[in-house]
Design goal:
By secondary structure, the protein is of the alpha+beta class. It has 2 domains: 3-63 and 163-337, Aminopeptidase, CATH 3.40.630.10; 65-149, Elongation Factor Tu (Ef-tu), domain 3 (Beta Barrel), CATH 2.40.30.40. It has helices spanning 3-7, 17-27, 134-137, 165-179, 201-210, 255-268, 283-289, 315-331, 333-337; strands at residues 33-36, 42-46, 50-60, 65-71, 77-82, 94-97, 100-105, 126-128, 146-149, 154-155, 159-162, 186-193, 214-222, 243-244, 247-248, 251-252, 273-274, 296-304, 311-314. Helix 4 (165-179) packs across helix 8 and helix 5 (201-210) packs across helix 7 (283-289).
Length: 338
C-alpha cells in the first residue's frame, strides 16, 4: 500500500505532476504500455486474455486545495479554493506553497463577538508566511501558485489519518493491483486522472483516447458517520466494507453493472455497503456523458472528513475494496454485461 507516500505529496487539481511521477515510477514495470496525455492523465495498459473489449479502471490523482489570488501590502496572501473546501475548517491550518509553509489566519476569538454566529469566508482569510511586505513575499510567491494542506500521516492498528485520501487511496489501490501482476479477463486500462475535483475534466479525455467498453471508478467517499448525526443520515460507515454506488449526482449506475458488483462481493463473502447519500459525483458521470457514453460502476473506500487536512480511513475497508476490484478485473463480468 502506498497511501502514506501518496498522501504526503502535493497535487492540487491542475498540479498533479509529483503524484503522477511517483505513480509512474511504481507501475511502469508492470504495464504493457504507459501513456501520459496532454492533459496529464496517466494510463497504464495491462493486456488481458481477450482483447476484443476494453475495461477502464480509474482513480483521480488530484486533491482539493487553493490557489494564490493576491499578495497584500503587508505580505499576507489571499487565496481561492480549488475544489470543494469548507472555509470553516481553515483558520489555524498549516498550508504550503512549493516548499514554503504558512498558517491560515483569521481574526482572533476575542474580536469575534459580533461574528460568532457567522462562518468565515474565503475573502476574510489570509495565509501568513511570515513576510513583512509584499516585496518580500513576491520573491517567493506569485499569483497563481498552488496551495496545499500540510498534514502528518498517522497509522494506527486499524485506521489511518492523513490528507488527500480522496482519491489517493484509490490510486494506491490501483498500484497495488498492478504490482500483483494479475491477468485481466479483458485488456484493462488503469487510468490515474487529473482535475476530478474541479469538474471531472481529465476523465473526458481518457474516454476519447481509449474508447473503453465500460468503466469502474475506484473512489474514496464521505462516511458522514459523525457522532452528532443520526445513522439514517450517514452516507457510509467506517469498517463496513467497500461502498457500492447505485446513484449519485448526475449519474445512475446501470442496474446490470451495479448488480454484478453486489453479487461479486457476496460471492467473495466480504462486507460491503451501499452508499446511502447521493450528494457528490465521480468520474463515472463524465464517462456516461462523453463520446458514445461509457457505462460505469463505482466502488468507494469510506473516509471521514474528506476534503480536509485530516481524513480517517479504515484499513480493513481498503483491503476488502482491493479484493473486490481485483476479482472484478479478473472475471470481467462487468464488461460482459455492459
Amino acid at each position: 500500500m502506498y497511501l502514506k507516500d501518496l498522501s504526503t505529496l502535493s497535487g492540487v487539481s491542475g498540479d498533479e505532476g509529483k503524484v503522477r511521477d511517483f505513480i509512474k515510477s511504481k507501475v511502469e514495470n508492470f504495464a504493457d504500455e504507459i501513456i501520459v496525455d496532454k492533459l496529464g492523465n496517466l494510463l497504464a495498459l495491462k493486456k488481458g486474455k481477450d482483447s476484443s473489449k476494453k475495461f477502464l479502471i480509474s482513480a483521480h490523482m488530484d486533491e482539493v486545495g487553493f490557489i494564490v489570488s493576491k499578495i497584500e501590502k503587508d505580505g499576507r496572501v489571499a487565496f481561492l479554493p480549488v475544489g470543494g473546501v469548507d472555509p470553516r475548517i481553515l483558520p489555524g491550518k498549516v498550508v504550503q506553497v512549493k516548499d514554503l509553509k504558512g498558517v491560515v489566519g483569521y481574526k482572533p476569538i476575542h474580536l469575534q463577538r459580533n461574528d460568532l454566529e457567522s462562518s468565515p469566508k474565503f475573502e476574510d482569510l489570509r495565509i501568513d508566511f511570515g513576510f513583512s511586505s509584499s516585496e518580500e513575499a513576491k520573491k517567493y510567491i506569485s499569483i497563481g501558485d498552488y496551495v496545499s494542506f500540510v498534514s502528518e500521516y498517522v497509522e494506527g492498528k486499524e485506521r489511518v489519518v492523513g490528507k488527500a485520501f480522496d482519491d489517493r487511496a484509490g490510486c494506491s489501490l490501483l498500484i497495488d493491483i498492478l504490482e500483483k501482476d494479475i491477468v485481466p479477463a479483458y485488456d484493462t486500462y488503469f487510468a490515474f486522472t487529473v482535475q476530478e475535483e474541479t469538474g471531472l475534466r481529465g476523465s473526458a479525455v481518457v474516454v476519447e483516447e481509449i474508447e473503453p467498453t465500460c468503466a469502474l471508478v475506484v473512489e474514496t467517499t464521505t462516511a458522514g458517520d459523525n457522532p452528532e448525526l443520526e445513522d439514517r443520515r450517514w452516507a457510509t460507515h467506517l469498517g463496513d466494507g467497500p461502498a457500492i454506488t447505485f446513484y449519485h449526482r448526475g449519474y445512475v449506475v446501470p442496474r446490470k453493472i451495479f448488480q454484478t458488483i453486489v453479487d461479486t462481493a457476496k460471492t467473495l463473502r466480504i462486507p460491503f455497503q451501499m452508499k446511502r447519500r447521493t450528494a457528490g459525483g465521480t468520474d463515472a458521470a463524465r464517462y456516461a456523458k462523453t463520446a458514445y457514453g461509457v457505462p460505469a460502476g463505482v466502488v468507494s473506500i469510506p473516509s471521514r472528513y474528506i476534503h480536509s487536512p485530516n481524513s480517517v480511513l479504515d484499513l480493513k475497508d481498503y483491503e476488502n475494496t482491493l479484493k473486490l476490484v481485483i476479482t472484478l478485473i479478473e472475471e470481467g463480468k462487468i464488461v460482459e454485461v455492459s
